[in-house]
Amino acid sequence: MENYVFSSRAKGVTGGMMILGLICLIWTYLTGSHEDHHMRFWTNFLHNATFFLGIAFMAGFVLAAFTTAYAGWFVQFKRVWEAYSLWLLPSLFLMGVLIVGLWLHSHHLYHWNDASAVEGDEILTHKSSFLNKYWYTFGTIIFVGAWYFFISKMRSLSVDEDHNGTEAYAQHRSYKKYAAIFLPIAGFTSAALIWQWIMSLDSHWYSTMFAWYATASWFCAMMALTIMMLIYLKSRGYFQSVTAEHFHDLGKYLFAISIFWTYLWFSQYMLIWYGNVGEETIYFRERLDNYQALFYINLVINFLLPFLILMRNDTKRKYGTLFFACVIVLFGHWLDFFMMIKPAALRTVIELEEGHGHGDDHGEQHGANESSDIYHLTSLEVDQHDHDQAGHDNHDGADGDLDHAGDDADAMHNHDGDNHHDGESGDHAGMAGDHGHGDHDGGAHDIEHSADAGGHHAFPERYIESRAGYMLPGFLEIGTFLGFLGGFLFFSLSTLSKAPLEPRNDPYMDESKHHHT
Amino acid sequence: MAHSIADEYNLKTGEPVADGHHHDVLFALYDDEEKLMAAVKEANSRHLHIMEVYTPFPVHGLDPLLGFEESRLHQAGFVYGALGTLTAFGFMTWVFTRDWPIIFGGKPYWSVPAFIPITFELTVLFAAVGMVVTFYIICGLGPGAEPIRLHDRITDDKFCIAFDLNHGGDDEDSIRDFFSATGAESVHRKLV
């Protein structure tokens, strides 16, 4: 089989997307305010950089997993996944931009990177052995670098097999070893990096399911992009022996992983909902109150639509419906990442704006406030019952030392009790009063602060006003997404054109050609 | 093969056909699925009427060659699953909002997230059990059913093409001719 020829038309389209993305990024930066450290720009950058990095990572991961499992059906188009996975190198540079920003404090994405915030915050102090810029920097460079090492090694073995492959299949044996070693390393390190990159945006919050959930999102997006790429290449006359049988299996993966994603999404939600622990519910409280439309749209387009569309046998074998489902899923999981990143960022923006003039430490109250009762995910009807009990319990615990917390667990409890007390009175002043109690500076400051905050956005107010680029993706977000997508496709297509599109001498090639579901 | 065949060939139950006659079956064994596939294609091109093909494992691509339509079993499965969803969700809704409302963990009576795992399980259960029962009924399987075995090695490593001499409409010579032309390992005749 011949090489793929990167047509000038394809170059033009992907190049145009890249330029559009660049314009959008610059535009976002220029229109951003210095006050919030250009938060919209940085979140868009982080969002797309990690999204496409994950797609590249998952492409490498499935290559390794399938090879280790002695699978052969995908071998015909393995070059597509190889090309995708090599995007890890550009991704590493993109993450480098974020790392430089972290060191220079050009962005305020991560609460834990603010020394004064960590100092006065028991939870962040406790987490600082993991959430710090050294871990972020070296974790990213070393782990992503290690992934790239394995993936580029596998790629070069695969290309070498084309030219020097024999019946002894030396390259394939070696390939399999690299794949098998890559798998456990990838499994553990990816979780650590997801916590660092994305979960720590909500720096007080944590979920043990988050890494799986984000990885499943990447997996779906990667499968969708793979199917779309293969349909495109087939329409250009390549991959004639990739048939409906292969698409059927790819479609099954898209279907299955979409359901797996939903399973993780729901499990994370339900455990937190059931546990009803304030420091955990904050994540969903924020999204349920202020992102209602997106919250449910996310479920509809990432679960309901792919589930119903791909359930039938024939929709996975028809390129039209399959392509349509893939567009939905790819965009849907991009939106899912939007939902992971933006609400936390917007909260930081609001705090930064409120804290303006008071110094940097003003964004830091939400440590204690996160445990406030108003963040519990319970309906109003039964709410009251719950509050009475919780408030009572906590009040006992809080007796005596309201302002001087010993360890962090105690600190949470104390403020919890405090908030419950105020919250029950239910009026706005009470809520605003909470605002100040979170920080450990003492009474005088509290009063000053609550007076100041009583006006418009006092922190514990659930509803925040709509903002372009945070509540819904604006044109700039879509443009940036298209830009990164263009870059990813440009890179993948040019990588595809550098080696024969269909591998030669792969021991599983025949199996792939006669694949039958 | 799992598919039902027309009533006149109702061999799987071991029952004699309606008119009281037994089937006079002429069949051949092949030792390889590739040979079997080629033979079935050859039979189609000779316009022979295959009664049934027996294989030790599912052979991909055989169904369309034998002219089987796609099974509608999965459509029944969807209906059973939907029934399970409605049963579980409806029952829990009725119990916890009408019949016996209880507060669990300070949650509202109608706690949808808590219902979902059970709804999911019952959906799977209804779909699975419903499809198995339907499948057994369609195929005439079930407790007490006597499967017919043309040859013991069909369940081991041999692939069998069978013709019905009484009802198939092909004469014996052309069938034997076809068997030898397609590399059959052995040819047998059996009254079942």
CATH homology superfamily of the largest domain in chain B: Phospho-2-dehydro-3-deoxyheptonate aldolase, domain 1
- As a whole number of angstroms, the C-alpha radius of gyration of chain B is 24 Å
Q: How far from one another are the termini of chain A?
A: 24 Å
> How many structural units, i.e. domains of chain B?
2
How much of the sequence lies in strands of chain B comes to 5-15%
**What would the average pLDDT of chain B be, to the nearest integer?**
86
Write down the overall mean pLDDT of chain A.
82
Structural class of chain B, by secondary structure, is: alpha+beta
The total strand number of chain B stands at: 4
Biggest sheet record of chain A: none
Spatial gap, N to C terminus of chain B: 18 Å
- Tally of structural domains of chain A: 2
Rg measurement of chain A, Å: 25 Å
Q: Please give the share of residues in helix of chain B.
A: 40-55%
Number of helices of chain A: 20
Query: Which of globular, elongated, flat, extended, rod-shaped describes the shape of chain A?
Result: globular
Give the largest interface pair and sizes.
A-B, 18 and 14 residues
Q: Which features characterize this protein?
A:
heterodimer, A: 517 residues, mainly alpha, 20 helices, B: 192 residues, alpha+beta, Alpha-Beta Plaits, 2 domains, four-stranded antiparallel beta sheet, 43% helix, 11% strand, elongated, disordered N terminus
Q: How are the SSEs ordered, and which strands pair?
A:
The complex is a heterodimer of chains A (517) and B (192).
Chain A: H1 8-31, H2 39-68, H3 78-85, H4 88-104, H5 115-119, H6 122-127, H7 133-164, H8 170-197, H9 210-235, H10 244-275, H11 278-290, H12 292-311, H13 319-354, H14 366-369, H15 380-398, H16 408-425, H17 428-437, H18 443-453, H19 475-496, H20 509-513
Helix pairs in contact in A: 1-2, 1-19, 2-3, 2-4, 2-8, 2-9, 2-13, 2-19, 3-19, 4-7, 7-8, 8-9, 9-10, 9-13, 10-12, 10-13, 12-13, 15-16, 16-17, 17-18
Chain B: E1 24-30, H1 33-45, E2 52-54, H2 62-65, H3 73-99, H4 112-139, E3 159-164, H5 172-181, E4 186-191
Antiparallel strand pairs in B: 1-3, 1-4, 2-3
Helix pairs in contact in B: 3-4
